[in-house]
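We treat protein structure as text, and this decision shapes the records that our systems exchange. Because each token names a local backbone shape, the row as a whole describes the fold. An entry from our holdings is shown next, in its original layout:
>
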Amino acid sequence: MRFGLLIVLLLFFNCGRSQTMPTPLGSEASGQAGIMNTDTIGINSKTGNVYNKPIFGDSLASSFCIVIKKEVKAHKHLKHSEHVMVLEGEGIMKLGDKIVNIKKGDIVFIPKNTVHSVKTTSKIPLKVISIQTPMFDGTDRVMTGEL
């Protein structure tokens, strides 16, 4: 478990790489490290279902804070894997052939080509950090139409 957390932290703080996404707190294209507090992300969101805030990224990885009020429909990614860390809330997740309950403190690994979806089951929205490798640009997401 410590090894997995170490990998997630290394991906999250991925220092020394050129930046290709908007980054907070003055992180420049020169590859500076950055830090962000996620406590207030999504609080005032007017979106009906999902609010997605890019955090950090380069050509090797990208990270997002995602607030899910209702659900994320079933999909897969053709070219990248994803780590999801649950910050707040609870949900039920389809992960390949499995259905699992997720809650604050859980870390989920989603290999490429694995169909996944999530439905929020708590009164508060599900807030997660999603770390995707290599960099996620949205072009490899395939909606599957599964339930």
